[in-house]
Design brief:
Strand order of the largest sheet: 3-2-4-5-7-6-12
Number of strands: 14
Shape: globular
Strand content: 15-25%
Radius of gyration: 19 Å
Number of helices: 13
Helix content: 40-55%
Length: about 325
């Protein structure tokens, strides 16, 4: 695919927050001393009355956000996804989700592509931790523009929301006109032989895989499954019925993430062969982002391999 721009998803997060703060007094941005990394420093610099740095204290930050939500504000809690979903899980569960509060969680630097920071900073379990919580909406946008749209679209959504986005620049494959609706999978490419449901940066990799396989006459139907909870059961079941097999692709552990969410729908409504492109029950390592994605098979080649396997099973 030619002429693709590469922009970090976190830029879309910061831009979305700027647009909200420009017109709304009820939007507040909370950060855990990583504002430059999460791009919330853009809000700090332009709308300082909307920004609070809570320091490296994720649990306190989530508790503070809950109090602000009870007071009628809409707080966006922002820090690394691995610390937000891990260290502050109890506060997310008991203080926010149990009370169904309108707190938005910005889980930055998600996935293995954080790179040199290594396993301690690579959030590979955050989808699992977030989606298991009652009342929580879970969104993993595919690029910076979709991240911006998600941040804005979620502002008035009832209950808590978890956003997942990476650090590295990824291809921008949507624009202002591309449809985005929370809870609805976006059809990226028509196809009939196999359906691929991907989230985050893996959507682009699925598109690249589809182009390569098309040269062999293999037709992939590609979906951007940006909303993992509530999941688009209608799109999944239709694809299962019409294509006869499914591959999922995510920058996350294979357990309890996108693959599990899709499989839960498929096994109840239309059982078909499935394969998963994901981290296979291991921690990450330190290294360049692209090298890590290749090592763990989180790229177009990994998707092509999974498609070949599932087509054999389908046959």
């Amino acid at each position: 695919m030619k002429d693709v721009k590469y922009i970090p998803q976190r830029d879309g997060y910061g831009q979305g927050l700027l647009e909200l703060c420009k017109t709304r007094k009820d939007i507040l941005v909370l950060d855990a001393d990583v504002a430059a990394s999460t791009r919330t420093n853009w809000v700090r610099d332009q709308y300082p009355d909307h920004f609070y740095n809570l320091g490296i204290s994720e649990q306190d930050m989530v508790g503070t956000a809950a109090g602000l939500a009870l007071g009628g504000m809409i707080p966006y809690v922002s820090t690394y996804g691995v610390f937000l979903s891990g260290r502050a899980f109890d506060q997310m569960r008991t203080t926010v989700c149990y009370n169904n509060l309108k707190v938005r969680f910005g889980g930055a630097h998600a996935g293995i592509s954080v790179g040199p920071d290594g396993a301690t900073h690579q959030a590979l379990e955050d989808i699992a931790l977030a989606r298991v919580l009652p009342n929580m909406t879970v969104i993993a946008p595919c690029d910076s523009e979709e991240t911006r749209k998600a941040v804005i679209a979620a502002a008035d959504l009832d209950g808590p929301v978890y956003f997942r986005f990476g650090r590295e620049a990824v291809p921008v494959i949507t624009d202002e006109t591309t449809p985005f609706q929370i809870g609805k999978a976006r059809l990226v490419r028509e196809g009939s032989d196999c359906a691929v449901f991907a989230c985050g940066a893996m959507v682009y990799e699925a598109m690249a895989a589809a182009e390569e396989l098309a040269k062999e006459g293999i037709s992939l139907r590609i979906f951007d499954l940006h909303t993992i909870k509530p999941i688009d059961e209608e799109a999944i079941l239709a694809a299962a019925s019409q294509c006869g097999c499914i591959v999922t692709a995510e920058e996350h552990q294979v357990s309890a993430g996108l693959y599990s969410a899709v499989a839960e729908v498929v096994v109840k409504g239309c059982p078909v062969p499935m394969e998963a492109v994901a981290v296979q029950n291991s921690f990450g390592q330190s290294g360049p982002p692209e090298a890590l994605m290749e090592k763990y098979g989180l790229n177009a080649a990994g998707i092509i391999g999974a498609v070949r396997k599932v087509l054999e099973r389908k046959a």
